[in-house]
Amino acid sequence: MSAELWALIAGCAVVTFAIKAAGPVALGGRDLPPRFAGVIAIMAPALLAALIVTQALADGERLHVGADTAGVTAAGIVVWRGGSVLPAVSLAVVVTAGLRALG
Question: Per the structure, how many domains does the chain have?
């Protein structure tokens, strides 16, 4: 790899470190206000949902519903109905592979 690429990677690492360090440095040992704590508590599920929807519906450049979308939907139903993650993922694999095999 070229030196420019390594410089870019190092620059990204420094910027990431600075962004992650900004919160603890700014707040010190103080607790967050309740309003901010509430927002932070719902950020992780919202981010996870956005990642799942993007991966399930994106086809590179546009939205696309396909076999992978059906697999994610089947897994979501299993988890929603109280099933564990392993059977949900297994069902998603079977549904996706079956639909892709059918054409």
Answer: 1
Q: What is the pLDDT of residue 15?
A: 97
Determine which helix (DSSP H) or strand (DSSP E) holds 62, and give its type and residue range: none
Establish if 102 belongs to a structural domain.
no
Residue 9 maps to a domain: yes
pTM for the whole thing? Answer: 0.54
Q: Report phi then psi at 58, rounded to 5.
A: -90, 140
Assess if residue 58 is contained within a domain: no
Percent helix / strand / coil, the chain, rounded to 5? 80, 0, 20
What digits encode the pLDDT tens for the residues 50-76? 888 888 888 777 888 888 889 999 999
Phi, psi of 63 (to 5 degrees): -75, 140
What range defines the domain where residue 22 resides?
Answer: 1-30
